[in-house]
Amino acid sequence: MDVLIHLLVGLHIIGIASLLGGFLTQMKAMGAGTARVVPAMLHGALTMLVTGVLLVGLHQAQGHHVNNIKIGVKLAVLFVVLALVYVKRDEETLDKGIFGAIGGLTTANIFIAVLWT
């Protein structure tokens, strides 16, 4: 079971890297007002959702304590990010505020995971 959990953690990190990396590659375009959602951002957000839910389920199945409030906050933030990315995926350009919100919320989700103990 530990191998599966470590595999899912690795995939979760790949999802974060894909979402945040897609955002970072569009930073220069954001300054020019031509930023758009790249497919890596949508795939990363979906990967984070699936692996995150599986990780919580596996931890609870093993009888480990899970901070449900923290998981709920992280899930809510991810749903907002996923909704923004999904709805705006076909637009040629995004408003700087919306695109910045995607990056900011993704970064906030990372810090919630790391700093909330």
How many DSSP-defined strands? 0
Tally the helices: 5
The gross shape turns out to be: elongated
Termini Cα gap: 23 Å
Query: How can the largest sheet be summarized?
Result: none
Poorly predicted regions: none
Share in helix: over 70%
Specify Rg, calculated over alpha carbons: 15 Å
Structural class determined from secondary elements: mainly alpha
Determine the strand fraction and express it as a percent band: under 5%
What's the rounded overall pLDDT mean? 96
Order of helices and strands: HHHHH
Report a brief summary of the structure.
This protein is an all-alpha fold and 117 residues long. Helices cover 80% and strands 0% of the residues.
What does this structure look like?
By secondary structure, this protein is an all-alpha fold. It has helices spanning 2-25, 27-32, 39-61, 68-88, 96-115. Helix 1 (2-25) runs antiparallel to helix 5 (96-115), helix 3 runs antiparallel to helix 4 and helix 4 packs antiparallel against helix 5 (96-115). The protein is elongated, with a radius of gyration of 15 Å.
Features:
elongated; 117 residues; single chain; 5 helices; mainly alpha; 80% helix
Write the layout of secondary structure elements.
Blueprint (H helix, E strand, L loop, with lengths): L1 H24 L1 H6 L6 H23 L6 H21 L7 H20 L2
